From TrEMBL:
Residues that span the membrane, as ranges: none
GO MF entry, a single one: phosphatase activity
The organism's place on the tree of life at top rank: Eukaryota
Protein name: Phosphoglycerate mutase
GO CC annotation: cytosol
SMART domains reported in the protein's UniProt record: PGAM
Extent of the signal sequence: none
Species whose genome carries this gene: Prymnesium parvum (Toxic golden alga)
PANTHER family: BROAD-SPECIFICITY PHOSPHATASE YOR283W-RELATED, PHOSPHATASE C1620.13-RELATED
Length: 266
């Protein structure tokens, strides 16, 4: 965790290094803070939600997402070629903000450049916590542990058998999220030109899956991903989850993890 903390501190102090000609950069953004009072369906205070509840951003969350977008435009203006997003509106707001911030920055003193198109993928949707009344959605931590035993949330995070957790929460274990996320991430890497970057705007558990692989952290609970934070990872040519797991390609280079830009006073 000390190495992770140093990455976060370093990212706040210096602009990221240029992308190597033989690498591809991913810029990972978690959505901003949400307003669960306006969720559809509604979620009680302290209740868990995930990829099956479309919770909107709060005003604070919108400001956070705009700050992240402006930071990306400042640090990665000439690099970004693709923007991918979860289909959930809390992520889409941030993805469209990134596209707009890049377009505005590129057009200063020149002809207007339209924003990059945002492509959405179900694989980047937040964890499925199961249906209300059967799964964990709308339950508090205390209610979950009263129903499924102490340490239920840790067992979810450390689950390694695909599909096994559906019998417990009606949804996913972390291994299920990780599999779908890394498969779609690999597809994105193939579409990014070498020496360029792509942006993924998604959720905490989606980002934990990608960052955890890169830093070698098997327990996602040890990977802190604040709202509207930015994580930057460079991948060598030929990288894929399967090749990396087999030791058949070099490791990715982690530039920063969980850097949260300061929200300006407007």
């Amino acid at each position: 965790m000390a190495a992770l903390a140093s990455l976060l501190a370093a990212s706040a102090l210096a602009a990221p290094p240029r992308i190597a000609p033989s690498a591809r950069r991913l810029i990972l953004v978690r959505h901003g803070a949400v307003d669960r009072a306006r969720a559809v369906p509604s979620i009680k205070p302290g209740g868990f939600y995930g990829g099956n509840v479309d919770v909107p951003l709060s005003r604070e969350g919108e400001a956070e997402a705009l700050a992240a977008a402006e930071s990306i435009a400042a640090d990665h203006l000439t690099e970004v070629r693709l923007i991918w997003s979860s289909p959930m509106r809390r992520a889409l707001f941030g993805a469209r903000a990134v596209g707009t911030a890049l377009a505005v920055a590129q057009s200063r003193g020149a002809e207007w450049t339209p924003p990059l198109e945002v492509a959405t993928f179900e694989a980047f949707r937040e964890v499925d916590r199961g249906p209300i009344g059967e799964g964990w959605t709308d339950l508090t931590k205390e209610e979950i542990e009263a129903r499924d035993g102490p340490g239920a949330l840790e067992r979810f995070a450390l689950e390694k058998v695909a599909g096994a957790f559906k019998a417990i929460n009606g949804g996913e274990g972390f291994c299920d999220i990780r599999e779908r996320v890394l498969k779609q991430r690999d597809a994105m890497l193939q579409e990014i030109p070498l020496g360029s970057a792509g942006v993924i705007v998604s959720h905490m558990w989606v980002t934990r899956a990608i960052v955890g692989e890169a830093i070698g952290e098997e327990n996602p609970l040890n990977v802190e991903i604040p709202t509207a934070s930015i994580s930057v990872i460079d991948y060598p040519e030929g990288f894929s989850a399967s090749a990396f797991a087999a030791g058949a390609c070099p490791s990715p280079t982690v530039i920063s993890v969980g850097f949260k830009p300061m929200v300006s006073k407007r």
